[in-house]
From TrEMBL:
<dbReference type="InterPro" id="IPR049362">
    <property type="entry name" value="TTI1_rpt"/>
</dbReference>
<feature type="region of interest" description="Disordered">
    <location>
        <begin position="749"/>
        <end position="833"/>
    </location>
</feature>
<dbReference type="Pfam" id="PF24181">
    <property type="entry name" value="TPR_TTI1_C"/>
</dbReference>
<dbReference type="Pfam" id="PF21547">
    <property type="entry name" value="TTI1"/>
</dbReference>
<dbReference type="Pfam" id="PF24173">
    <property type="entry name" value="TPR_TTI1_N"/>
</dbReference>
<protein>
    <submittedName>
        <fullName>Armadillo-type protein</fullName>
    </submittedName>
</protein>
<dbReference type="InterPro" id="IPR011989">
    <property type="entry name" value="ARM-like"/>
</dbReference>
<feature type="compositionally biased region" description="Basic and acidic residues">
    <location>
        <begin position="770"/>
        <end position="798"/>
    </location>
</feature>
<dbReference type="InterPro" id="IPR016441">
    <property type="entry name" value="Tti1"/>
</dbReference>
<feature type="compositionally biased region" description="Acidic residues">
    <location>
        <begin position="814"/>
        <end position="826"/>
    </location>
</feature>
<dbReference type="InterPro" id="IPR057567">
    <property type="entry name" value="TPR_TTI1_C"/>
</dbReference>
<dbReference type="InterPro" id="IPR016024">
    <property type="entry name" value="ARM-type_fold"/>
</dbReference>
<dbReference type="InterPro" id="IPR052587">
    <property type="entry name" value="TELO2-interacting_protein_1"/>
</dbReference>
<feature type="domain" description="TTI1 C-terminal TPR">
    <location>
        <begin position="769"/>
        <end position="952"/>
    </location>
</feature>
<feature type="domain" description="TTI1 N-terminal TPR">
    <location>
        <begin position="14"/>
        <end position="358"/>
    </location>
</feature>
<dbReference type="GO" id="GO:0005737">
    <property type="term" value="C:cytoplasm"/>
</dbReference>
<dbReference type="InterPro" id="IPR057566">
    <property type="entry name" value="TPR_TTI1_N"/>
</dbReference>
Amino acid sequence: MATVEPSPQRTEFFKRLKAVCVPLIQLVLRPEDKSSDAKEILRLLEALLGLWTAQVSQDASILDEKLANYVFFPLSHLLRKQDQYPMRVIETVISLLGTLIQHGWKSRVSSELSQQLLLFFSFTLGGAPGQTQKRELPEDTVVESYRALTALVTTMGASSAILPPSSVAKDKTIPAMGHSVTIMLDAITAGVPPLVQLGALQCLQAVFEVTRDNAILAQFLPGTVSSLSKILSPPLQQKTQRRVLVRSLEVLNKVLVNVLADIKVRGLLRQREATREPQETPAIPTTDTRFRVELNPSWLKATAAQVKIALSSVLKLRSHESEDIQSALKRLCISLLDECHSSLAECRSILVESSMMLEDEDEARSHLQTSLQDLVGVYPELGDSIKSALYNWITGLPRVMQSNDERIKQLAIRSVLRGTRMAASLQMDSATLDDSLGDALRDSVVALVKNTKPSKVQDDAGLELTISGAGTSIAEMGAYSPVLLDLEGQRATRGEIATLISNIGSPTQQTKLATTMLAYVRDSEGVDQIASYWLAFELLKSTYAQSSGLDDLLDFSSLDESRSQEQVFQEIYDFSASVLSAHSDSASTDWRLEAIALEVTAFAATRLKSDFRPELIDVLYPIAAFLGSQNPQLRRHAITTLNIIAPSCGYDSVSELIVDNADYMVNSVSLRLNTFDISPASTKVLTMMIRLTGPKLIPFLDDVVAAIFAALDNYHGYPVFVENLFSVLSEVVTQGVRSDMLLLEGANSQAVDHKKRRPESRGVTGILDTLKRRTERAERETEETAKSVLGHPKEPWGPDKSQAKSLLNSLDSAGDEDGEDGEDESALVVEKPKQATTPTYSLLTRVLSLTQHYLTSPTPTLRKSLLDLVSTVSPALAPDENAFLPLVNNVWPVVISRLHDPEPFVAIAACKALAALCSAAGDFLASRFKTEWSSGLRKWFASARSEAAKARSSSGGGGGRVAATIITKTAMRMSTPSHVFAGGSSRIIIPGRSAAVDATDDGRFMVQSSPAAINSIPSLSAPSSSLSHSGGLGRFAQASQVWEAAVGLLGAIVTYVWVDDDMFDEILALVVDLVPRNGALREALEALNADAVWLALYERGSVESKASPVLEGFAFAPMEAGRSVVVVGS
């Protein structure tokens, strides 16, 4: 035979190998201590591994078994004394062996060498038999060992080394392979690092793929399936990484298919079919010498039973969250149903059930992959398994819904959905399934609702109504909060239930189920009724969502379906309307039933559009009545329903909806009020209508307001109820004052202005005109006095009767002519008739008049709201003084008395109400304020000031400089005993900043503003003159807020009401400390008496000093701030 010349590349590569192998063998064969040469040996091994790996990447065709044997020679000597070398050297040797096996020996490895290497790897990974102490291996070494072992097993399979021709070799290989498989299974289940587990799984898969003898694989099958099911089941499942679980499922698939595939055991299947007799020995027998399993029908039956037990635990992974694991498990089920259809017939039910649960409609299915639907076409008996599994799921669904684990509930619902979809795709019609499905759905929802704890929602009584404007879509406004299963943790379960309902069967089937649910609605109550009602509505919505106009056109059978659908819709709407109409605050109705009725009504509006408008007569007021419900969820449902109905019926907003239908809504409210069927919801609905419609509805509320007045007369002893009624009247006032038709009919809209203004100086010309008028007036008085007094008249004054009649006729004829003389007009005084008032104005006057009777109510909040009502309505009624001023006279006593209310916030509201009356009535209140001022109002202001001073001083602001106060005769009279003024002199010394009250010899009194002196006069003590304390609220204290309101009232008095000089001086004395920093108050005071204000500020040192004028022959006293001024009386 001719010798083939080696290629130059191979020769060159051999030279490089030789340059490394020769020094390596020399080091290995030296008898010296091996540990000393370990570093050099490691360097040569790494160089050798690098050379071999580089050649593999360049040209692996020159590598053969000869080069592998040449490289293996030094390695074999090194492995004989592996315990003397570090583990890093052994790891490099193992890596090099793996490359030699894969790219060197390939399929030409000898049986003896393969057995030696198999034993070497087995002993390296698992230790030698009988070895007490095993050498610890690093993770990288173990991973490299499994990688090399996998390459060895693959090579042995290609070279038939696993099943050698000689029986002696067989007997040696099988135990060695069995030991290796045991080591692999121990590594898989021992909790080692994931890389080690993946390496062991890869090696185990290689064993079952390359071994051709089914008897050998049958020997390895029990332990393999047991170990794999162990790692795929709890508790190891939770501790194992996802990629390891996926790889374990793939290996289990390969193991079962390679051992129990129908094509592998077809002979046993034929024997079983032929005999049809039960086997007596279900155990797995083995031979005594070859360790081979005896394959017979008994073995197949026993193995299938054991595999079913293992699969029952492995298939629990179908509830795992990972999609990779679910996909691998689905491939396992489909593969076993296809490849092991007959051999694992006992496992068919659990495999079909798991395949249905793992079916995903959203996943894009490849035509190259086998699906369960494809298998049903091949094996028709699988269809019965699908029906059986679906029936078990449906009947067991209510029981699963009682579980506390939400994931189990969701998985059960999802399984029913996937099962029904698969049954529909396979056209499996079953009346039993349809009947059981409706009952199961209803019982499941009932179980879910009963096991749901009521949500803890705070009652937000101040919930504001959101008005939807134009341009807002119904989808944006129709966000109903869930009625059932409203907890946050049940969101996913609620979504699964909704998906199941919307995808369950055809529209015809859903309509039938809805009809069945409606029958339960009429005959049941409580939670059963709510669940049936909700299911019927959801099923009906689903049927309309699935309807298609094209389908209806092509399918003539849809005509009957459409008629049935409309009948169900009309029936459920009629029931909803009756639920809404029967609402009552006194009746104990489950709010969820009414909330579903609201949703049904909104759905009907979205379907019927403008045709729904006639239905508003029956449902609009009940829906609006829910806005006053005590349940916040029900209020939100009512708001959302109104927001949906408005655009559906063609209205731009809810306000337009209420206004357009306000006539019969008002009639409904008025009817309830007249029959005294009054509830908090009625008042809140009326308030809402008034707020939405604005001033346009006010003129039509005469009957309603009259009914409210009647209710107040009959139920005035119920403070809360009275407060609710006045809340309606307050809303009437709030909207009424905004009306553009509030003033008298035909009258001009002129704002009433009683503000006092500073007189304007017209200069010297004005003075001369004034003097001239005084002179003329004096002359006229003198002439009239000089005239003699005549006797009584001798004839009647004026013309006779005929002349008078002619004069009247002439006046009537000339009434419309222009240019009539002013003297003739003034001769005839004709009283103008009183103009008629608008309904809105009359309504507001009645409301204001009514407040006087309830301002003494024991409820502080009611008193406060009534005072606010007075503040709101007064400016609107002010233009008609003939009607308004009598009302002011009526409410004055009760309003002024509220200043002494024990509740500070009521007193503050009284100050604001009085200020509003001052602005509206003006000088009409002058005498009333003067009377009250001397009767105790002055003391109330002084007390409020002193209390505020205490409150502010408690926050740390006391002490310090005491502000000076102007004192006049009336001021001294207000705060000093009357006997102090007994002196004969009328002169009063106005003190400066450092004066005290002392009597002089001539009867004058010098008042000096030392802290002790000022503090002894309560009305003159500034708020900052008290002693300091800590821990107060300062300006946020109630006393401080009352004083601020009192200052506002004083400012309103001096701004709009005439006050005499004494009262002005006392008011100035009270607020002089605030004048420098309160511009509005200073302007009001200066409008009445600017000199007094300047003098008060001058005495306090708040006026800027000016230089004294210089004039020859005269000397001016310097201007000194705070200097005492002597006022000499006449």
